[in-house]
């Protein structure tokens, strides 16, 4: 069974500041990990993913995340926030085989202050 | 290319009424998922289909909820009778395959916002 915990339901940063959204997971099998982004009144879209290989993965819009097995974490970062980054971000986990479904975290709402 | 298309985008109904939400997946996608999003519970998987066959409906909250996929290009989620606690945003998502869905290739529609008075 898998689960995801996102630390902080709301994060607020200033434009140009570092963005750090935290995600910890629990998985009984080697995990696949994802970050999805949801802009207002839209569906979720994939931001980046880790399946195998390099533990630092880069996504769209300058975001990246690092898989740390020892810490069971997959935190999302962006060096410099932009106003257009304001959205809700979801961390998700799935298994690597079979029809295991994605399990989403509760989401973190990111606000960017001018 | 058209994405996942959901209708209606907004639905307001009274308790006890039947509600039907519709979804057209991306052409060629074999897997379809229904999710519900609420402030209290976040994003929950209700049911998913593979090749039009329901695979796992363990997330369906109760017998008032039913979902069908009569063909590869259409699915419905029905609530009968509806209750105020069913108020939520319902998302449909599709994927080329179940394996692709597991690796993040999940394409979401814009959602149907349901309000039950």
Would you kindly provide a written description of the structure presented here, covering whatever features stand out?
The complex is a heterodimer of chains A (114) and B (117). Helix content of chain A is 0%, strand content 56%. Chain A is mostly beta strands. The model of chain A has no long low-confidence stretch (mean pLDDT 91). Chain B is built from one helix and eleven strands. Chain B has one helix at residues 98-102; strands at residues 5-7, 10-13, 19-24, 31-38, 42-50, 53-56, 65-71, 74-79, 88-95, 107-108, 112-116. In chain B, the strands form two sheets. In chain B, strands 2, 4, 5, 6, 9, 10 and 11 form a seven-stranded mixed β-sheet that branches. The longest helix of chain B is centred in the last third of the chain and has 5 residues, at 98-102. The termini of chain B are far apart. The interface between A and B is medium-sized, with 25 and 23 residues.
Features:
heterodimer, A: 114 residues, mainly beta, six-stranded mixed β-sheet, 11 strands, B: 117 residues, seven-stranded mixed β-sheet, four-stranded antiparallel β-sheet, 4% helix
Major beta sheet summary of chain A: 6 strands, mixed
- Weakly predicted, low-confidence segments of chain B: none
Spatial shape of chain A: globular
Strand runs of chain A, count: 11
The number of strands of chain B is 11
β-sheet strand percentage of chain A: over 45%
List the helices and strands and how they pair.
The complex is a heterodimer of chains A (114) and B (117).
Chain A: E1 2-7, E2 10-14, E3 19-27, E4 32-38, E5 44-50, E6 56-58, E7 64-68, E8 73-78, E9 87-94, E10 103-104, E11 108-113
Parallel strand pairs in A: 2-11
Antiparallel strand pairs in A: 1-3, 3-8, 4-5, 4-9, 6-7, 7-8, 9-10, 9-11
Chain B: E1 5-7, E2 10-13, E3 19-24, E4 31-38, E5 42-50, E6 53-56, E7 65-71, E8 74-79, E9 88-95, H1 98-102, E10 107-108, E11 112-116
Parallel strand pairs in B: 2-11
Antiparallel strand pairs in B: 1-3, 3-8, 4-5, 4-9, 5-6, 7-8, 9-10, 9-11
């Amino acid at each position: 069974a898998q689960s995801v915990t996102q630390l902080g339901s709301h994060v607020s940063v200033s434009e140009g500041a570092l963005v750090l959204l935290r995600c910890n997971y629990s998985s009984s099998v080697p995990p696949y990990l994802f970050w999805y982004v949801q802009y207002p009144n839209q569906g979720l879209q994939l931001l980046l993913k880790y399946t195998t290989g390099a533990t630092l993965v880069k996504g769209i819009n300058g975001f990246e995340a690092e898989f740390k097995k020892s810490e069971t974490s997959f935190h999302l970062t962006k060096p410099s926030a932009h106003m257009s980054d304001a959205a809700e971000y979801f961390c998700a986990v799935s298994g690597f085989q079979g029809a295991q479904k994605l399990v989403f975290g509760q989401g973190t709402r990111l606000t960017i202050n001018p | 290319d058209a994405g996942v298309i959901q209708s209606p985008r907004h639905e307001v109904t009274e308790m006890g009424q039947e509600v039907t939400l519709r979804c057209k997946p991306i052409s060629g996608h074999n897997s379809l998922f229904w999710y519900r999003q609420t402030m209290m519970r976040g994003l929950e998987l209700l049911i998913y289909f593979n090749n039009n066959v329901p695979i796992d409906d363990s997330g369906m909250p109760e017998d008032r909820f039913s979902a069908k996929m009569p063909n590869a290009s259409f699915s419905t989620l029905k609530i009968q009778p509806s209750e105020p606690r069913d108020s939520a945003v319902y998302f449909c998502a599709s994927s080329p395959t179940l394996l692709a869905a597991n690796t993040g290739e999940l394409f979401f529609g814009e959602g149907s916002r349901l309000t039950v008075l």
